[in-house]
């Protein structure tokens, strides 16, 4: 079903196809450079609900429904759901997707969860365990600030290394080759490199880029080593949410291993906001950052053939407010997904 | 690789073997009816650490090391780790297993996580994605009370429907048929039925058995429907942590569907403590409850052939303190694992 290569990489003999993708974001994201690419914009940060957590659940549900609508499928045709979010005990997911009644694998990989969910969904499809599955992740600026930092009402100051949690969600339908043979999609997941935890001792929760860059560097290096490829084999290597400061650190760490991605490196967190006008400091972050940028910006370019092969690496910072308050460092993880025009 | 049957069940053509299992628990668990069966007992509730969270991380790491020691394997031979715990952002896992440096899929399914991790691990092995993988879950009484209820210092009163979070962890090594051909193990995972979220509107976080029983009933009924089997095809149907009150509710719900497990039903939460002497009220709960009872009590009976086939169903209550404080109900989920002597 797959070629097992190196320590952590699988190359699929039968690559699953991404037959549908949808993104929904908030108004700040719609004001950014990718604003015209998202499927839906919601101007109400509460999404018509009473709490930030309910808002994120609603966002996740709407995004799942959107990808079903776009592909003309029903929830009954989706065999498994791989989903997660940033909140404690994944409540945005649990309350959000309940009414879909799809058998659920709940995941937690912080902002890397989009990569984790796509990895497991791809493994599931390639093994023939299902015809169609969904990968779904979300984040919300206000629920994340409450979860990890301070209530918005405190109006805390943010240092320039801080990223801004994206209010957004991405939903993806993966299917086997023989499912929906008339699908217009032409992006496959041809391989994955699963991340391990990397901790360089960064303790500043206002500097997540620094905490996650070592994990991203580790997964990129391991992926290239496992596959025997070079950065030139990829049109782009796109990390999740390192932001502009994290990008510098990533490139420094890769240089130590003689890996020079140069302009091939992009970062969803840098892409989603305009640094000059949006006051988001180092860029965007959150599960919804990489997920919404993948759905709106990366996949269309692959589908059109502008890019042939992309290494997509959502990055996660595995802290909680308890671990932060107890003085622990912030371990990082990054999951690599090989996306190909096919 | 697997027979896809019904809405949510897979029956594996090449069932993965459980080649190793280990359990470590605290002193209260060692005083219970299964006390003599666990691999290690730790009398210090802090496991030599400074905080409850660090204690749980240490518990998880020691349990992972124990199963490697018992099987004579090294962490380098384990290709993937499927792991989780109850804490916000899964920090017991992230900090616990960091030094093992195994590529990680972080999971959250509340107390059902043991079932979720075994499901994904079995799917991974049966598809040929790895020779050997580990499933690992933990819970700790004090970290869970702090996470979901009150600090221990409040000395809150507990109603009789409450369960007691088990301080314990279980680690399992799953392998393909050709990995370690001399292994003495003889328990296979022959199938899984993946749970979906079921919510009957229970809002009492001191009555988790009632919140989870509907999910357990749903997965049992769906499993039997999907496979065309009856309860008589199983020596035991063993739920995770419904406790004594939840067990009554489960049996009532199953009766409505003409399913009568009778004495074939057992519950890890009921098995682990002595209700007469241990003052745990309805029984035990937590990811570590089903995991440690599986490793210490269920698998040895299957290995010896006393039982031929067991349906094992860890049950999870998908609440957080935020969802509870915001007045939400407690959704449940249960993942079914078919364990067979082989």
UniProtKB/TrEMBL annotation, chains A, B:
SUPFAM superfamilies: Thiolase-like. Pfam families: SpoVAD. It comes from Hominiventricola filiformis. This is Stage V sporulation protein AD. GO terms for molecular function: acyltransferase activity. InterPro entries: SpoVAD, SpoVAD_sf, Thiolase-like.
């Amino acid at each position: 079903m797959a070629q097992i290569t190196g320590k952590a990489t699988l190359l699929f003999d039968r690559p699953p196809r991404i037959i549908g993708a949808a993104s929904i974001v908030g108004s700040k994201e719609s004001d950014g450079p990718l604003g015209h690419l998202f499927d839906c914009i919601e101007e109400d940060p509460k999404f018509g609900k009473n709490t930030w957590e309910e808002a994120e659940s609603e966002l996740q549900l709407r995004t799942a429904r959107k990808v079903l609508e776009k592909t003309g499928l029903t929830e009954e045709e989706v065999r498994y759901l791989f989903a997660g979010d940033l909140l404690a005990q994944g409540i945005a997911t649990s309350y959000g997707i309940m009414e879909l009644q799809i058998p659920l694998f709940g995941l937690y990989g912080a902002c890397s969860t989009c990569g984790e969910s796509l990895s497991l969904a791809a493994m599931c499809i390639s093994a023939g365990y299902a015809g169609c599955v969904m990968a779904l992740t979300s984040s919300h600026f206000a629920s994340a600030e409450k979860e990890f930092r301070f209530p918005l009402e405190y109006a805390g100051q943010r240092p320039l290394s801080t990223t801004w949690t994206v209010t957004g969600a991405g939903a993806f339908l993966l299917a086997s080759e023989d499912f929906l043979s008339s699908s217009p999609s032409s992006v496959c997941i041809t391989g994955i490199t699963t991340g391990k935890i990397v901790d360089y001792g960064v303790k500043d929760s206002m500097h997540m880029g620094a905490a996650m860059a070592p994990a991203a560097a580790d997964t990129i290096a391991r992926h290239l080593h496992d596959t025997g490829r070079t950065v030139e084999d990829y049109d782009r290597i796109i990390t999740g949410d390192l932001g502009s400061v994290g990008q510098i650190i990533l490139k420094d760490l890769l240089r130590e291993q003689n890996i020079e991605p140069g302009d091939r490196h992009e970062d969803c967190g840098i892409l989603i906001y305009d640094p000059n006008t949006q006051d988001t400091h180092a860029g965007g972050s959150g599960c919804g950052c990489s997920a919404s940028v993948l759905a709106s910006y990366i996949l269309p370019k692959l589908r059109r053939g502008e890019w042939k092969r992309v290494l997509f690496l959502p990055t996660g910072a595995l802290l909680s407010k308890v671990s932060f308050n107890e003085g622990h460092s912030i371990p990082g993880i990054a999951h690599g997904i090989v996306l190909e025009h096919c």
